[in-house]
Amino acid sequence: MAMAQLTPGVLLSGGHPAFALTAGVGIIEQHEPLPDGRAHIVLAGLARVRLTEKPFVPPFRRATAEILPDGATPVDSRDVASLALLATRFAAELRAHDPGVELALPQHANTAEVADLLAQDLVLDGGDRQRLMDERDPARRVDMLMRILAMQWDSMRPRSEGSAAN
Question: Is 113:47 a contact under the CB 8 Å cutoff?
Fold first, then answer.
C-alpha cells in the first residue's frame, strides 16, 4: 500500500485533491476498522515510489508505482551520532509536553531507515515531511532532518522579552 500526502489547494478533475508524486510504500502492520468504513492503519515502510495516478474506481484512488532507489552517498558517522543525539533530546522535549510521545527505533535499521522513521515520528510540518520524502540521497536527508529538528526545537523554546528578533 502506498501513502501519499495530499497537495493542499489543488483539485483534479472529478474533485479529487492532487497528491504528492513521491510516496512511501509498505506493508500493513496494524489495522483498526472505524465505524464509518475507514480504518486506522500502520504501515511498515519498504521503499520510496514515484506514483502515476490511474482512473478512479470507487471507493479508492489507484496508481502505478515505480520504486525509487536511494542515492549512494554514505552518511558520515558523526552525522549519524549527531542525528541520534538531536532526535533523542527533541523527543524528550516533546515528551515534557505530551507524555505519550514515544521514540522507538529498530536495532538493526540502517541510517536511511532511521532518518525516515525519525522524520515520520518527529517532523511536525507536512511540507517538511514531503521534502524529506522527495530527497533520495541519505546523506542530504540526514542533514535536512537535523536542520528541521533543530528549527522545531528552537521554536518550542520560550523567548525572553528582550531576546525577540526584530
Answer: no
Per-residue confidence of the chain (166 residues) as pLDDT tens digits?
A: 898 999 888 888 778 888 999 999 999 999 999 999 889 998 888 899 999 989 888 888 889 999 999 988 888 888 888 888 888 888 888 888 888 887 777 777 778 888 888 888 889 899 999 999 999 999 999 999 999 999 998 888 776 554 555 4
Side-chain-facing half-sphere of 154: CA atoms under 13 Å: 8
In three-state secondary structure terms, 104 is coil
Domains and CATH numbers, the chain: 2-68 (no CATH), 77-156 (1.20.58)
CA distance 129 to 5: 9
